[in-house]
Amino acid sequence: MLDNLLYQIKRFIPKSLFNKLAPFYHYSLAFLGALLYFFPSRKLTVIAVTGTKGKSSTTEMLNAIFEAAGHKTVLLNTIRFKIGEDSQPNKKKMTVPGRFFLQKMLRSGVNQGCDIAIIEFSSEAAKQYRHKFINLDGLIFTNLKPEHIESHGSFENYREAKLSLAESLRSRTKKRSIIVANIDDPEGRRFLDSGALVRLPFSLRDAGLHKIEADGVEFTFRNTKIKSPLRGGFNLMNMLGAAVCADAFGVSVSAIKEGLEKLSIIKGRVEFVKLEQNFDVIIDYAHTADSLSELYKAFGSQRKICVLGNTGGGRDKWKRPEMAKVADMYCDVVILTNEDPYNENPDEIVKEMLPGLKKHKPVVIMNRREAIAEAISRAKGGDAVLITGKGTDPYIMLADNQKLPWSDYDVAKEELEKLLRK
Asked: What is the set of domains in the chain, with CATH numbers?
């Protein structure tokens, strides 16, 4: 409700005035939310995960590990909201909803006997002070790539928003102050030096002799072999971050192994749609050039039929041809479609992708359901149909904050069923 009110306010007051008032507005709401629910983060072990890619997956891995170790958890990420055994899909179309929502979740977790809270934090949430008065015990940094540049004004501002999440680690608001950072990323060292008491780097080298194969990944952690059904080198890195963090919080290696090996699916992240077809259909949230590249590489030599689009609303226009360039490099068939146009003309968004395509002539089908149906109809035995950009997103976002209910997974399943009936 407050976010809708803010949207309406932005329409009627000058942008310069809004920008001056916004920090006070956001900070005040953060304080009031914490005050209303009696600062619940003080009663929980709170671990945040930030970065450009892999945040949701890392929170899910960390949750699986802590549950395997016998903890009762609160989990908040782009995919779902969970308190103990009660899990609900995140239909808010944002990683971190309002400050009151977040504080209420944490208080409910305390009241229901949870001892661990795991929160995915985006740069937009940090920019709007949604992390204020959330006292962290730990923070995992996954990686940093250019994203949300228009919103933040520069890559440096985007990075600073992420770094601000380490504020409570610097100020020692809790007994524990732990930062876990991916030092294979150029920004990893900067996050390690952000002021936490305990600084734990991780790198692909920590995986020992590892395998990245079609049926998952295998690696070694603390002299223990772990085999996960989750696919791709990016998931291996996410698992390493989660494992190093859990280890720092005293979780046994056996529980880390159990949690990671039991986690067979992460909704909307390399999620397979399986019926009786003899080809793969995969839903994934990938919406940057880097994440598209990593996803496509995970399917090796399979013939790839790729459905993708781009977000409107002025968001990162620069990446439109870059994502198309990645699809041109790895895909055998490229189908461009509508994604989240917001207030932009969806046809213009797709047109801005076209310069990135040199090798392939794309198929342009603006109706997203028809685009998915076309991709599935073209698939042959052994192929991979890769539908990217939305993952578990519950809506297609239109002009004037209008929302069209949507599910890539459900649509792909329905179109598969139609094909199989034929």
From this structure: 2-262 (3.40.1190.10), 271-421 (3.90.190.20)
Confidence band for 159, pLDDT divided at 50, 70 and 90: confident
What is the per-residue pLDDT across 164-193, written as a single tens digit (0 to 9) for each? 888 889 989 999 999 999 999 999 999 999
Sheet holding 224-228, edge to edge: 211-213, 216-221, 224-228
Measured distance CA(207)–CA(189) in Å, rounded: 19
Q: Which two tokens stand for residue 197?
A: 């008491």
Kindly state the helix (H) or strand (E) to which residue 253 belongs, with its residue range: helix 253-262
Q: What is the pLDDT of residues 300-319, one digit of tens each?
A: 999 999 999 999 988 889 99
Are 161 and 132 a contacting pair, CB within 8 Å?
A: no
Q: CA 413 → CA 273, 379, 406, 419, distances in Å?
A: 6, 14, 13, 10
Cβ atoms of 159 and 144 closer than 8 Å: yes
- What tokens does 326 get? 């990645």
Look at residue 229 and give its three-state secondary structure. Answer: coil
The single residue listed with the structure tokens 């198929």 is 363
